[in-house]
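Researcher: For the record, we're logging two predictions in this thread. I'll number them. Prediction 1 follows.
Model: Prediction 1, sequence and structure:
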Amino acid sequence: MLFNSLTFWLFLPVFLGAYFLTKKNARLWVCLAGSYLFYGWWDWRFLGLITLLTGLNYWCGLKIADSASGGAEGGGRKHYVRFSVVCSLVILGFFKYFNFFIDSFAVVSDSLGIGFNLGTMSIILPVGISFYTFQTMSYTIDLYRKEVDVERSLLKFSVFVSFFPQLVAGPIVRARDFLPQLQSDRVVEWEDIRRGTNLMLWGFVLKVLMADNLAVTVDRAFQEPTAVSGLYLLIGVVFYAFQIYGDFAGYSLIAIGLARVMGFRFNVNFNRPYLATSFSDFWQRWHISLSSWLRDYLYIPLGGNRKGATRTKINLMLTMLLGGLWHGAAWTFVAWGALHGAYLILQRVVSTQVAGFLPNSLCRFIGWLSVFSGVLLAWVFFRAQGFGEAFLVIEKIITFDRFELGTILRRLFFLKGLLLIVFVFGFEWLSSRFDFDELARKHTSVNSLFIVSVLLLLSFWGMFGGGAFIYFQF
């Protein structure tokens, strides 16, 4: 189901009614049944995969815990965690990357004159497989590290894996944050409902109001880059930066808000990323659940910054390359990750050279401009269908190809999109300086004004075409 579909809004009140009318295990069964219905709505066959990963990691978790309690600190526990990680990665690799690696191998063999053709398979990519695979892997790894307690209830563990608000597009919720909340019934207070509802409404503003309106201009720019001007492509790239932010941050807010209405607390997944003044700052604000996952389970185990400057740079690049590949089975995603890896490495070199030479305010502005420009460049590869298209877009922009106002197509959508970006960016800039939520909490009239204003904006300017969320493909 899509959060912005009629089906979901028919499903939600029935689910919440059953959720609040039940207690203890009955409530957990409602969560599990509702989550499986939500996930299986696209294709019931996907349920077999999620139950397989659930059962596999539940069993491995028990074995890791029992091996530790039996005194086998080394071999047994290590074998089970390796088995869990390898099986999870094999399943993810098969469904997401099998054809990608086969095609890449064929290209390389053709270039060498060998000409191997292994053929490809018609593999359906299960929605959200990257998210719940990483979520289950983090559980067994944390259990091995003794950073989380074993979950011996299969029902609770199944709810942890399949909880529908964040199942298909995150945020990635760690076991240590979620499983303790499943040990008892959540006591839902009015503040949870108020805060959760506000988060969901702002999530819909980002998705339905901003992202889906910007998509009209972005799609036109990238569908026929040869037919449009460099100015229109530049607008398309800028709009895409805010489209993907609104789309993904919007989903995260809806998921976090819905969980809050049910009494669960999830961590923030986006924190005004386009206000970042360094690339490391950007990755502490963008898709926080993934960046922290890559840091804790990849970058730090590789050695982090503990083994010298050269090794640190290698670790940064490897982490970002794999982060790019996580997003999709295409070399353009790897290029996107490589660019961000290069940015982080360059930042470490440059920051030590220029520190103290410029006023802090000027440094922050230059940092913000550099980060935003670099992120825009990387988004070209993320959005393009191939390197040829990406380089064409970049070439037409940097050569100022037909930078004339008359080349802007669909000017109404352009003006509408520009206003929405200014509105959202302005609100987020202000919210970084004023605590609007605290104001809304103390004054009911302020909270009511926020709700009415959002509903009016969505009614007049919202795009309710049921467009899928971008990160569903990852």
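Researcher: Logged. Prediction 2.
Model: Prediction 2, sequence and structure:
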Amino acid sequence: MPLLGRAAVAMWWDMAPEHRTEFEDWHSHEHFPERMRIEGFRRGSRWASASGAEGFFVLYELDTYDVLTSPHYLARLNAPTPWSTKMMPRHRNMVRSQCRVLASFGAGIAASLLTIRLAPQPGCDRALGDALLGALTKVHGVAGITGAHVLQTDTPRSAMTREQVIRGGDKSADWIVIVAGYDARSVSDVSGGRLGEEMLSRMGAEGHQIRDLFTLSHSITPSEL
């Protein structure tokens, strides 16, 4: 899964089981199409917790970093539809990171996904970036893996949007590693091996890292509307 463009919005949240059916209907049939009509949005994908838990991960791939502050995007964020206004408060434990794509390897859309949220040790930004670049080129060559990417959060300086106010504000990640594959076990093995906590710490990452496994729920591009 090569990322389309040089920027992205990466989001994690929990959705209670009693709201899940309506959430997936809204997100698939109103929210995704709305976002894909914004100039510069290249692809949206939604991923559900591989364990059946309440977590979701959503990734929007953008042409350039400037899309994050484009008038069209900000207009949508500040004028949510009635259905969006209803659904936004149900996004629990929201983490929303506006990112630059540092590296991206792969091709196609896969069924399984690993996300790792991490932060560099003080003074180790460059060392961590270089080490991740080398590690991801090797991970991409592993059987069962189709893509490996690293994102870095770079939050634009702008006022809190109406959607954020409705949700009560969002947290953000720092650096994000994404590994995609057609074989769920291979993706999981990467999390405990080549990109395990101890290995990433040696590369220059802080010890506390958040790891989640997901399966593909829905994906859409502007040309599919």
